[in-house]
């Protein structure tokens, strides 16, 4: 470089600085353009009791009015409602999927309330895994429905977490990024709210529940994310109404004593939640979902199927070796099952044969017996017939004899 500069000075050559980019420093722009063209997708799971404010918060977050009719409190089981929306902000397309619990916390026995949630999260991982395992994979048009974040709505009791909250969070914390929220935070006083937040965090820690930690390893977001981690759980208020404050219309809730402004950071943590969720950490949430939660699912699934990276001797085992061994195992199993079936079949055939023979013998005996009885009957009848015939002959003989006697008597009377 020095030599070139010296040469240029010597030759008095005019240097031009380049305008715009060229070479591989354009790569980030190519990525951005491609991503913008493809559009983005984000999947949110809202877990919370019926009427706790799930839909209102989602509407407030995305500036929409997606709420449909209210859910009933009388469902026998917990269900999930899945809604997908195409949103656009300037030239950015967002395919948003919101999965909401229905009937959560309404049953008398709440022990299994978390199960449908766990099943749903696992089902999305399973469908992604199945796509990955296909020979012809098609991730371009694949709708990735894995849940990127779970907004867990805690009731604003000001007291402590419910056992249902602990049970559910414990069962999903290894499957999804949980961000705990204190719902309808406008119903708690400032002092109580602070104590409530501390209580919730200490209960989560003592129960070993892992919630999502905003990443602090990126210089650009370290500062904001560290302070946000200290503010969890966020105390949020949602509203789709616009109220007048001074000369401005703001999203808020009007009360007899004043207005709660949703986007006022002194009133609640809504803006903080929106910033960390949508502006700062959306990509990290997706990455964590793929690299941690999905990876954990995939790993345990493949292990259950018998795949492993190292053998019993701690030596690496290739996928092909395991596949061959599994295949051989399977073939042996099939052969064993086939033989077992054959033997069972032969046994049953023998049993049936014996049963048929016994039945045949029984029938034969019956037939012989009937034949004997019939022969005896015939003989008896023949005997009776013979006797009758003899009687008839005797009768005729007697009749003839009596006729002769009568004739002789008549002749003797006439002579006299
Ligand atoms: P379901 O889908 O029926 O389970 O209800 P949800 O959890 O989606 O609750 P929704 O958003 O429908 O809100 C229920 C009621 O709570 C509505 O009357 C809302 O206006 C009210 N609400 C929602 N958010 C807040 C809040 O932050 N504070 C207060 N005070 N009320 C709220």
Describe the model.
The chain has 416 residues and is an alpha/beta fold. The protein has 10 helices and 9 strands. The chain has helices at 2-11, 27-38, 54-62, 115-133, 163-172, 190-206, 219-229, 270-280, 282-304, 319-415, and strands at 40-47, 79-89, 92-102, 149-154, 178-182, 234-235, 242-245, 248-255, 258-261. It binds guanosine-5'-triphosphate. The site of guanosine-5'-triphosphate has 17 residues, from α3. Residues 320-391 form a coiled coil. It holds the Pfam family Septin. Belongs to the TRAFAC class TrmE-Era-EngA-EngB-Septin-like GTPase superfamily. Septin GTPase family.
**Which spans of ≥5 residues are poorly predicted at pLDDT below 50?**
none
Give the SSE order as H and E letters.
HHEHEEHEHEHHEEEEHHH
Biggest pleated-sheet summary: 6 strands, mixed
Mean pLDDT: 88
Rg result: 47 Å
**Secondary structure category:** alpha/beta
**Which ligands appear in the coordinates?**
guanosine-5'-triphosphate
Residue share in helix: 40-55%
By DSSP (H or I, 4+ residues per run), the number of helices equals: 10
Number of strands: 9
User: Which outline best applies?
Assistant: elongated
Strand order, sheet with most strands: 2-3-1-4-5-6
% residues in beta strands: 5-15%
Give the distance, in angstroms, between the N- and C-terminal Cα atoms.
191 Å
């Amino acid at each position: 470089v020095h030599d070139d500069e010296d040469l240029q000075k010597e030759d008095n050559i005019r240097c031009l600085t380049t305008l715009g980019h060229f070479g591989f420093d354009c790569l980030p722009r190519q990525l951005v353009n491609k991503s913008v063209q493809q559009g983005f997708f984000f999947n949110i799971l809202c877990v919370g009791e019926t009427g706790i404010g799930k839909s209102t918060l989602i509407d407030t977050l995305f500036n929409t009015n997606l709420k449909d009719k209210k859910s009933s409190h009388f469902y026998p089981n917990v269900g999930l409602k899945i809604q997908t929306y195409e949103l656009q902000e300037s030239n950015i397309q967002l395919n948003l999927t919101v999965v909401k619990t229905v009937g959560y916390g309404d049953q008398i026995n709440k022990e299994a309330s978390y199960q449908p949630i766990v099943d749903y999260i696992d089902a999305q991982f399973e469908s992604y895994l199945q796509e990955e395992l296909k020979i012809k994979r098609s991730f371009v048009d694949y709708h990735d429905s894995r849940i990127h974040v779970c907004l867990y709505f805690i009731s604003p009791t000001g007291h402590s977490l419910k056992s249902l909250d602990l049970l559910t969070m414990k069962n999903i914390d290894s499957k999804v990024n949980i961000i705990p929220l204190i719902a309808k935070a406008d119903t708690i006083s400032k002092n109580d709210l602070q104590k409530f937040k501390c209580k919730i965090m200490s209960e989560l820690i003592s129960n070993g529940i892992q919630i999502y930690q905003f990443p602090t390893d990126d210089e650009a977001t370290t500062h904001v994310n560290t302070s946000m981690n200290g503010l969890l759980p966020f105390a949020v208020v949602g509203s789709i109404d616009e109220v007048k404050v001074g000369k401005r219309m703001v999203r808020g809730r009007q009360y007899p004593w004043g207005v709660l402004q949703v986007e006022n950071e002194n009133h609640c943590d809504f803006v903080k939640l929106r910033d960390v969720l949508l502006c700062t950490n959306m990509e990290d949430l997706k990455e964590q979902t793929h690299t941690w939660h999905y990876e954990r699912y995939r790993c345990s699934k493949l292990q259950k199927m018998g795949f492993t990276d190292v053998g019993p001797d701690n030596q690496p085992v290739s996928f092909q070796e395991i596949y061959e061994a599994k295949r051989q195992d399977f073939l042996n199993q099939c052969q064993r099952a086939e033989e077992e079936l054959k033997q069972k079949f032969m046994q049953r055939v023998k049993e049936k044969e014996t049963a048929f023979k016994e039945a045949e013998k029984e029938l034969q005996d019956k037939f012989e017996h009937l034949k004997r009885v019939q022969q005896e009957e015939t003989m008896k009848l023949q005997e009776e017939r013979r006797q009758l015939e003899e009687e008839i002959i005797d009768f005729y003989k007697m009749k003839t004899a009596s006729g002769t006697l009568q004739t002789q008597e008549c002749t003797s009377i006439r002579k006299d």
